[in-house]
Write a structure and sequence with these properties.
Blueprint (H helix, E strand, L loop, with lengths): L1 H15 L8 E3 L1 H11 L1 H14 L2 H5 L5 E15 L13 E20 L3 H66 L5 H36 L5 E3 L12 H11 L1 H22 L4 E13 L8 E11 L7 H67 L5 H35 L18
Parallel strand pairs: 1-4
Antiparallel strand pairs: 2-3, 3-5, 5-6
Helix pairs in contact: 2-5, 3-5, 5-6, 5-8, 5-10, 6-10, 7-9, 8-9, 9-10
Amino acid sequence: MKVFFLFFYLVLCMLLNPVKSYGEKIITLNQAYMYAAKLNGTIKSQRETYYQSTLVKWTAISMLLPNISLTYKDQRFHENSPSSSSQTSSGGSNIFTFFYPTYGYTFALTQPLLNIPAIPAYYAAENFIKSSKMSLNNVSQNKLFDTASDYYDVLSDENLVKADKKTMKEALSHLQLAKAKLTAGLAIITDVLQAKSEYYQAKQQYIAAKNKLKSSEANLRAIIGVSFNFKVVKPKNPSLLNNDLKKYIKLAYKYNPGLKSLKFLKKESKDEVYYYETKYIPTINFEATYNGISDNHFIPQGNEHYWTAAGVLTFPIFQGGTRIISIEKARSQNNANMYELIQAKRNLRADVVSGFYNIQNLKYQIIALKHEESYAFKNYKLVEEEYKAGVATSVDVITALAELASARHNLLAEKLDYYSSILDFKTLTGSFKRKLIRLSIDRFKY
């Protein structure tokens, strides 16, 4: 009875525990996304860059805030006096005999009343924050895309290992059959040597596929930031929702990360033009000071306290070539960004059209390769039966087996290319989104 309960407990643990007995944990694609969002160093670094951009707006806000300062001065004055006769032989040198303390302090206030450049500077700061936030989104989506791509690489390599293992077993079966026919006097030694060569070649492909799988797992492990061994499971295959090309072009114009970056860049250069243009508008500041002076020695009346207040107008009339050069440089950069944005839209449209039709072609190629693999497998089985009956040669079997292995490889490679192309296309149109990166990271307390 104890043995039965122990066996039941072990079975229950195997069902509930996702960790395999050999120490490999099962990670789904969504879990891989979560690991990358939490542990990927590039995403964490870009998050800090975004946080730094949130502090830039205070530079513009400070242009409208008052400046308050306190200056305190404490001085000691002395008067030289001849040395007395009671002092030692220090000669006729002077000594310090009297000290006169004096101190003063000043409170100063400068409050901007009219500072037009603060407005475009604030807009530029807000635009910079949005641009940095979008950059964080783009970097995060790129890393999550790389996670998905590497995840499908691992899946494809696992299927490749299974396919090459199956081919190796089929080659071994043919080798054993050739050896049996040689023993029975129905085959020659050349048949065995050819079958053995094909078996070793299939075994080498199997070992190469296993090594490639280890490399792919290492790449996925690096990007999601984990060090333990794991196994992957087949997720839902990526696919396009519909076949409306015009809709994808509109989505690309609206959500493409690269195009959005150029839009922010153009707006930033436009704000810079406004900033330089308003920089030469007059500014008005209110200035006030409160002074307290104490000088008991030099001012017999004692303390003096007074305050001043004034409105200060600063009107820039001429500053050499600084004004026209800075404005024209900003306008020229704004024009350059506009031209680059126009060309980027043209290139994006071409990329969307090309990617869309490439996916359609890959879809039909997969269908064709599935038929080729099915035909190659049936042909191999047929030739194998013919070889058993003495109708076909060992070379025919080896040729059919090589065609079957090639068909399997081609189908797996085409499937991986198809999935990668869909992921690329979704990134191109801005459809590959993952709401996993926390953006509310403004830690500045105000």
